[in-house]
Write a structure and sequence with these properties.
The chain is mainly β. The protein has a single domain, classed as Porin, CATH 2.40.160.20. 12% of the residues lie in helices and 61% in strands. The chain has an 8-stranded antiparallel beta barrel. Strand 5 and strand 6 form a beta hairpin. The longest helix has 13 residues.
């Protein structure tokens, strides 16, 4: 019973936090985006799937730094394009005082995300680019619970490097989710309050 009490207290805290508590210093962000999901049903149609998992730690209120991974495949009869990437990312969430907090907007946060890393896009029997990947763009997070946010992110992605195509760039509209976990300080406070 003594071991389950702190776990229950943490769960209660997760469900009752204020809408801006998830982006406080020390908390952790884990989730990802699902982009370009397309499953063609016609003859010779293509299958596209790109996932972009992320993990970050809030070093200050509204500022998170972490890492990302990109894994993608675009397959059509006769050609397959694979994409990959790994590197650091940073996010800045605009605070409650910087946006209108009426009604639905009370549960949303606008943010900007940027990343730099090693990325590549390679097509069988076609072009390839491998090198430095850069991404930047705005996004919006809607919190369906205090600790789970659904996101939309419009992001420019570019790869500069080697291969038979030295520049590869695109504009992605990604949809995904993030889970905001309390940091050690928040969990410690819950344990202290539960005693």
């Amino acid at each position: 019973m003594k071991k389950t009490l702190p776990v229950l207290a943490v769960l209660c805290l997760l469900l009752t936090q204020k809408s801006n508590a998830q982006i406080q210093r020390g908390n952790i962000l884990v989730g990802g985006d699902l982009a370009d999901f397309n499953l063609g049903l016609n003859k010779n149609s293509n299958f596209i799937l790109t996932i972009d998992p992320t993990a970050a730690w809030f070093i200050r209120n509204n500022i998170a730094v972490g890492a990302y991974i990109i894994l993608g495949v675009d397959a059509v009869k006769g050609a397959t394009t694979t994409t990959y990437g790994v590197g650091p990312l940073a996010r800045y969430y605009f605070g409650a005082g910087q946006v209108n907090t009426e009604s639905v907007l009370r549960h949303t946060r606008l943010f900007a995300e940027g990343n730099v890393g090693i990325e590549g896009s390679n097509t069988s029997h076609g072009s390839s680019t491998n090198g430095l990947g850069i991404g930047i763009g705005p996004g919006i997070a809607y919190f369906i619970t205090p600790n789970i946010g659904l996101e939309a992110l419009l992001k420019y992605r570019g790869i500069v490097g080697f291969g038979n195509d030295p520049l590869n760039s695109r504009l992605d509209l990604n949809f995904g989710f993030q889970i905001y976990l309390p940091g050690r300080a928040t969990a410690g406070k819950v344990r202290t309050d539960a005693r």
